[in-house]
Amino acid sequence: MAFLSGYSHFRSTGYTNPRGYLKSKGLIIYGSGSVSLTPEGRALAFTPETPLTQDELHRVVIERLDGSERKLLKPLLAKYPDVISNTDLCANAGYMHERSTGYTNPRGRLKSFGLIKYEDGAIKASDILFL
Q1: SS3 for 75?
Q2: Model confidence pTM above 0.70
Q3: N or C terminus: fewer CB in 10 A for the chain?
Q4: Would the pLDDT of 63 be above 80?
Q5: Based on the number of CB atoms within 10 Å of its own CB, is 90 exposed (0-12), middle (13-18) or buried (19 or more)?
Q6: Helix locations, 1-131, DSSP H
Q7: How far apart are CA 131 and CA 127, in angstroms?
Q8: Rounded to whole angstroms, what are the CA distances from 77 to 113, 116, 122?
Q9: CA–CA distance, 94 with 88 (Å, rounded to integer)
Q10: Contact 109/71 with Cβ under 8 angstroms?
C-alpha cells in the first residue's frame, strides 16, 4: 500500500501518520503486514468501473519504479512463476556484478516494497503482482 500510494518506505512518518489517521476514523484496519478497508472505508473509496487486468497492474507498478528497479522487475515478471538466479537477474538487467550497490540497492527496495521475494537462493516476482 505504501508503494502504490507513492511513499518511499512503509515505515516513514509520511506514510504511517495518515494511515494511523484513517484507522482512527474507522476507515481501515491493519496488522501483520496488511491493510484493509472497513465497510465505511470501502463506501468512500474510489472503485474503478472495470477491474484492472494483470497487464494494467504491471504497467502501473512499473511506472512507479525508477529505472534501475524497472530493469530488475521486468525479467522477473516475464519469468513468473519461475525463479531467476541472482547471477542471471544481474546479467539480464545489464549489471556487471551482483554485489554492486547499483544492483543490490534497487533489488533491496523491490523486496522492501513486497514486489519480489527470495526463494532458495533465487529471486522471483511476488504473487501479489499476478491476478
Answers
A1: helix
A2: yes
A3: C
A4: yes
A5: buried
A6: 13-24, 39-44, 54-64, 67-79, 86-92, 101-112
A7: 8
A8: 15, 10, 14
A9: 10
A10: no
